[in-house]
Amino acid sequence: MNQPIVNDLVVRFANVNGTGSASANNIFSKAIFRMGLPVSPKNIFPSNIQGLPTWYEVRISEAGYLGRREGIDILVGINPQSLPKDIASLREGGYPVYDSSKKLHPDLLRSDIHYLGIPMMELAMQHFERPRTQQLLKNIIYLGAMAAFLDMEIDVIKELISEQFAKKPKLVLPNHQALELGYNYAKDHYTCPLPIRVARRDLVKGHIMMEGNAATGLGAIYAGATVAAWYPITPSTSVVQSFEKYANQLRIDSETGEKNFAVIQAEDELAAIGMVIGATWNGARAFTATSGPGVSLMSEFLGLAYYAEIPVVLVNVQRGGPSTGMPTRTQQADIISSAYASHGDTRHVLLFPSTPTECFEMAADAFDLAERLQTPVIVMSDLDLGMNFHMTPALKWDENRTYDRGKVLSAEDLENMDQPFGRYLDVDGDGIPYRTFPGTHPSKGAFFTRGTSKDEYARYTESGEAYVRGVNRLIKKWNTAKEIVPRSELLQSSNQSETGIIFFGTSTYATEEALDHLRENGESVDALRIKAFPFDQTLEDFIAHHKRIFVIEQNRDAQMRTLLIAELDADPQKLIPLLNYDGMPITAARIIAGLKGEKIPVKV
Amino acid sequence: MNQPIVNDLVVRFANVNGTGSASANNIFSKAIFRMGLPVSPKNIFPSNIQGLPTWYEVRISEAGYLGRREGIDILVGINPQSLPKDIASLREGGYPVYDSSKKLHPDLLRSDIHYLGIPMMELAMQHFERPRTQQLLKNIIYLGAMAAFLDMEIDVIKELISEQFAKKPKLVLPNHQALELGYNYAKDHYTCPLPIRVARRDLVKGHIMMEGNAATGLGAIYAGATVAAWYPITPSTSVVQSFEKYANQLRIDSETGEKNFAVIQAEDELAAIGMVIGATWNGARAFTATSGPGVSLMSEFLGLAYYAEIPVVLVNVQRGGPSTGMPTRTQQADIISSAYASHGDTRHVLLFPSTPTECFEMAADAFDLAERLQTPVIVMSDLDLGMNFHMTPALKWDENRTYDRGKVLSAEDLENMDQPFGRYLDVDGDGIPYRTFPGTHPSKGAFFTRGTSKDEYARYTESGEAYVRGVNRLIKKWNTAKEIVPRSELLQSSNQSETGIIFFGTSTYATEEALDHLRENGESVDALRIKAFPFDQTLEDFIAHHKRIFVIEQNRDAQMRTLLIAELDADPQKLIPLLNYDGMPITAARIIAGLKGEKIPVKV
Amino acid sequence: MSYIRPTFRHPALPQNEKGYAKADYEGAISTLCAGCGHDSISGAIVQACYEMSIEPHRIAKLSGIGCSSKTPTYFLSQSHGFNSVHGRMPSITTGANMANRDLLYLGVSGDGDSASIGLGQFGHVIRRNLNMTYIVMNNGCYGLTKGQDSATADVGSISKSGSANILPTIDLVGLALEMGATFVARSFSGDKTQLVPLIKAALSHKGFALIDVISPCVTFNNNKGSTKSYSFVREHISMTSALDFVPEEEEITVEYAEGTSKQISLHDGSSLLLSKLNPDWDPTNRRKAQERLQDSRETGEVLTGLFYIDPESEDLHEILQTTQTPLNQLKQVALCPGQAALDKINAGLK
Amino acid sequence: MSYIRPTFRHPALPQNEKGYAKADYEGAISTLCAGCGHDSISGAIVQACYEMSIEPHRIAKLSGIGCSSKTPTYFLSQSHGFNSVHGRMPSITTGANMANRDLLYLGVSGDGDSASIGLGQFGHVIRRNLNMTYIVMNNGCYGLTKGQDSATADVGSISKSGSANILPTIDLVGLALEMGATFVARSFSGDKTQLVPLIKAALSHKGFALIDVISPCVTFNNNKGSTKSYSFVREHISMTSALDFVPEEEEITVEYAEGTSKQISLHDGSSLLLSKLNPDWDPTNRRKAQERLQDSRETGEVLTGLFYIDPESEDLHEILQTTQTPLNQLKQVALCPGQAALDKINAGLK
Ligand SMILES: Cc1ncc(C[n+]2csc(CCOP(=O)(O)OP(=O)(O)O)c2C)c(N)n1
Ligand SMILES: Cc1ncc(C[n+]2csc(CCOP(=O)(O)OP(=O)(O)O)c2C)c(N)n1
Ligand code: SF4
Ligand code: SF4
Ligand SMILES: [Mg+2]
Ligand SMILES: [Mg+2]
Fold first, then answer.
1. Alpha-carbon gap, residue C94 to B232, rounded angstroms
2. Residue-wise pLDDT tens digits, A73-118
3. ipTM > 0.90, yes or no
4. Would you tell me how many other CB atoms lie within 10 Å of the CB of residue A543?
5. Interface contact flag, C32 B49, Cβ < 8 Å
6. Which pTM was predicted?
7. Is the bond preceding residue A193 a cis peptide, omega within 30 degrees?
């Protein structure tokens, strides 16, 4: 092919876990981003700390497609252990970049690809002393070579290196050196740039590169969360860690140096959510973050919060289940277990962010909703969204926004009440009662919180009538929730097709790409993105107005589809599952295949 | 009315918790049973140990209706605290039997009922010494009076008393005495029997009176369970307690006196199910019993058992939820949380017994199914079934039945295998792999069990393909399960109506009564009883062949209906929820009202 | 039971300094069995709070599940209460305390609630030295589920069912001492003169204060052969030392001083006076306390009283260096950094 | 990694009495970090089992979740293994042991797995004196989740992130002693000569045997300032007493006897020999052990070795009086009472 491919490629770095390749790879995508190009890196890492294969896949797309794409154009194969599979994964005509310090094993030679050997270790050993340094700078060397191959702006990379080592300036020089070593070697031994390359554009204005978990943690800061209780678990760990990091920057009392927050690493997930419930019961905004196994352990407490009507914000960063499953892979497979968590008749509010920006916004919204509705709100993120850097709109905070603390009675309110206070009275007819915080008033407003059945005045009762009144009011409250949760997003102003697509969360990138593709082929279909459970009227209408609707989700059992037919009494016949659950983020190709009814190998 | 009512009445005893009334009341129903009459007692007790109101409601029905019936004919009102409500609960023309030692408060006088005062305490004090004795025998005194009023056979009652005190013969005489005191006083002061009364029949042949929990525990004995691990919780506590009681009778090694079983009271429900998993993994039959809160706590472990494919038998004796809810009331509200327990894509086998006899049988079946399918099987009982005495067919055990231990490889099997053993290989194409027990063979058959993703040889892997192969095989296994779980029961040989009823568990009594009633009015509808999840073809066809189907269940959210439309893709429009969730067993009247579309007050 | 009480109080009724009558500290009528030890402990709590003039709304009462955990309904009805789930009171209280460091937190639990399902949370709330009073109403059995042995039942203790407990006991006092609790005491529901000052001391202690109160279950574990029965405890009870609690206001009178061997001042200004009768008993020495406990196990005494107190103890807020202002009172201005800060963050992510 | 090994063994390879080569006790290649303490412990387990001539299929290995809990994959590949869920290994092992009393049970856990989420199960498996060996690979941090402090981290210990741990440590040895464990030891992954005989003794002990093995996390907690680093432990380590394990077959040789102050015989006929160097050390005295532990805390030693053993200990099966036949081997005839018994029961329910 003589026509070069510009700004539309996938580069895969194959490294060994724990060898410092991560930072070099991050610089690579950051540099692309700074060249004004949409970029989407994905970290594919093992469930161990050091020594196993790990991959870093970067998609660069002038069209702005941020979903994963099959077909590797360029492979940077640094891991001998996985090199055979890695080489095999290259598309025809692709380019393997490898360490030519040692000769390639003949088995690894393919006639349909173009080998680009760089003696990385050799160069490193020639120019640097300590083995650890050689080890680390080897990564910068291949970065330099990639700059030459792809026609990246070397100064942008140098700048990024300088920024990274701002605190250790001594390291800047050797890193720049290493970069040039790779850069020059490539230039001297190969015709650079390659026919597949990048070129500066201006397509990332107003965007940032951020991980979903960091955005969620920051959202909790902006929402005024003061208590965070958690237990470490991949892939949610960085949510509370980011909260703490930002809190230490933004929440230290300027005079006293004391903390305007408390982070507690609990002994387990049961304790973590117990602490959240205790804190919100007592008037603080509190949250926890976990993943599937933690949600299972929290389910008894979620039932208490639902029934005793205590706000809870829970971030569920989903990973591959069931059980310990695939802890370092992504899925959307906790939908049922989150929506109906706990025994008895329970239902919980779910939010479905699809970008780090939405993680920030929905984290903030979650606190307002939880307090307004006095019930658990679960933010349904996933490993792909939470732990990968995404190009996403810069974060905004409306300065006029004030926290909605919901129906809380102050001492004055209590003084001026003519009626006796009833914690579970439906005063306003919206199913939401009023609450009071301990210590509010010397003689008014005290009540007793319990997980057992109670009457409108929070008095213990075993009366079936009182019980039924109570749980029926919770239904009323649920209907109120429908009105105030984030609305579904329609991707078209008016319906254009009898076929519709319903999707949510991290399937968004790939779905949007698939929709473009269909449009270009004149096969447009309508699409709707779910942002919250309970479902709203828009969603109900969308289903009503389409003959066949594909529900795209990343789990085996079509859990969102189950929720749709169970909650909306939608006709199951017209809801077609379009599933991906191998632990890798779904691709546009897969969606298109699904829509075309092609038998997708893993579909059940 | 001059026409006497014979063998069709409801008697309600209103007592104080912890005053020994329970045994007197049990003798009452037992005596009715021995007079050859179908009888159905229900204990309505508070969540405390002593001092609060407690009710014992007995329905006597020559027609054999064992469900609850509204409309109290006779009230034995022993509890001053609840007497006002109790008197009010009597139907017009009903009879309050009360302690006339003290005069009734005028507020308690109704003109439309017939008061039957018996100076119970007075008589007790005249004839017996110690206060505690007086307290206890007072109960026998009202029993005697009831015998006179209802024309019960006094000798039958005496016999029952003698049996009860077989071990304390000294107590027999005073109890007989007390019985006659009440009996004679009634005879002397009122025209006995009343126009509403009982008369011997021969309608209970081949039946026994038993609690569901006792039957479940006994079923586990017969199924060969050797390890029971549990944590006390109402209403499931008596399951393992019965198991232990029977085991101490039937499972003691005759030579050594040692136990052929182990019962462990665990520190909580997580530990209880952990112990079950460890025991079944190691080749014993093991089970646990709990209620809603316990199931929530077990959900992480249920996911492990599902994914690592380890047999588990879990008895869920459901109570009023959510959270601690109504711990001494009945509901069927854990269907969703049991069917889909745990995060990720999971599904669990459920069995729905409706009589103690079925508790016995399904408990036994559960062990075969769990081992055959290598997965959790949850027996879905409830408080009404588990803790109340029910008239039920005598228990049978087929002497030719042998335990189905499922696919387990012996040392010989391993020796003779030509293929290497693969724990998760689908050798037979039914989705069920072979397992081995530790210690089986010196060098063959060892494997590593884990909750993480694995290949067919139980080797740890993070390969998406291997993961998908594994979870798809679990779907295959699920389809196999459909073929072997207990079949749905059709109540008619062929369809007679466009309307159908689907019901299960303890709704059975009331449903059958309602069906009779409809039949008598020439309004017959078809009915099907669900016995297990996954659902079978019969059930699928039943839904297909009816225009409108009422799904009768005892929860707020129509959980079984959700399961039906989610799993069978049934048309939600034709599945009409018919719900009862005030914590009291559902009645035929309620079902008929629901079928007639009458607005049921508590329906949402 | 009603929770709406008239703010008006009959002038005749005796009042404490804050002007509350004893009735203001009472709760709904108990539904426990007549004679249940738990009810006496509720009474002691009422008396302690009344005498300490704690404003009812400044105290929060929390519990797990069990007969014992029901008691918060039966005292302090003008205080917010939380009857949570089984074994999890410590985590709920931890969260509540984090939200508002200014209130007093009274946790009530049972031996099943704390030593079985709750053992993990019990250990970790101790480790965090949460500022709370933790009362275990210890009857050696699961009362509410009808009397099964609990993990604090002694080996060989006979329950009402007639069976002897076969597993070793978990001694919450020994456990708390080993795990570093800063206030550890044991008492007996039948001994108010000891229990009331202990509760006062616990409420005054800044940090985690455990009182393991043996509280007989008259219905299921008060029979002959039970080591948690009234009679057994009465026969075997002994004391580390008699103790008086003196609130900060009162100065220590002479006749106090005379009977006293040792005075311990608590952070809130109040102090504990230890009786002369046990002159060499020093409750500020953890190791001595553990040894004394070991002795009592060997002699078979039921040793009660204050075992250990660390008057210098730092509570979780101090350890975490949280602000003095209760976190639940911080306003949006103090909490929300606003767009300016966000712009900086955005800039750093380009 | 492959689990199918040839039964044929090269005659040249040295074999133990049962005819197994050391390789028969090894497992898949470790995926832990190079230098991780856990790998040394795996090695010690392999050596102990090989030298004791345990038939690999007579031992079951169980664990929770964590880097430590991964290790069962890296030893004894001819034994059944169970890598369960986080903190719940004790309950799984309890069930397994109930099902078959004839196998040996080796539980592996981490400090997060045992002292945080698993604290409750840890306490209760001790209480039941389950016949098992319980090895905690204790690195004071959560390795697999990238190094957060665990509950066994010492106050002030600095983690790789540079932050000092602010909460008191949970000492599993102290806890086990207080809770009545019948075999309690501490060791160090870097000291095989001590660790191997301890593992042998633990496997020979009838009852619950805890070995708390300090096992540095080279990636997250081996830095300066960490009290769980190789260097810190090496500098502060001390020993209750040197110990030799002698299997029943061997008679005690002279030079053994000479160096020995005390001999303890275990129920399986093997015995423990304690070095003369600490003549007055008696590991059968729980109280002494607790006191020695307290001393070490005051002196800041990292005290290792056997703390306590009860050679008479009764395990859970004996306590429950279960049959000698493993329950999983009872046949239907022994288990199912049949219709006759059912008729009796039916008759009693009329
Ligand atoms: C998760 C859960 N498991 C079990 C129960 C049932 N349950 C209620 S109270 C109780 C034990 C109470 O014992 P204890 O804490 O000693 O209180 P007591 O009644 O003896 O005062 C149990 C097991 C429950 N409510 N929740
Ligand atoms: C229920 C649950 N919560 C959290 C996790 C995440 N997790 C995996 S390992 C681990 C801690 C491991 O620490 P430790 O037991 O000390 O083992 P180490 O890695 O240090 O050897 C955690 C919190 C999990 N797997 N399951
Ligand atoms: S059962 Fe025991 S603990 Fe419960 S209230 Fe009665 S006496 Fe008290
Ligand atoms: S992270 Fe630490 S504990 Fe885990 S393998 Fe590496 S060194 Fe070992
Ligand atoms: Mg108790
Ligand atoms: Mg660790």
1. 27
2. 999 999 999 999 999 999 999 999 999 999 999 999 999 999 999 9
3. yes
4. 22
5. yes
6. 0.97
7. yes
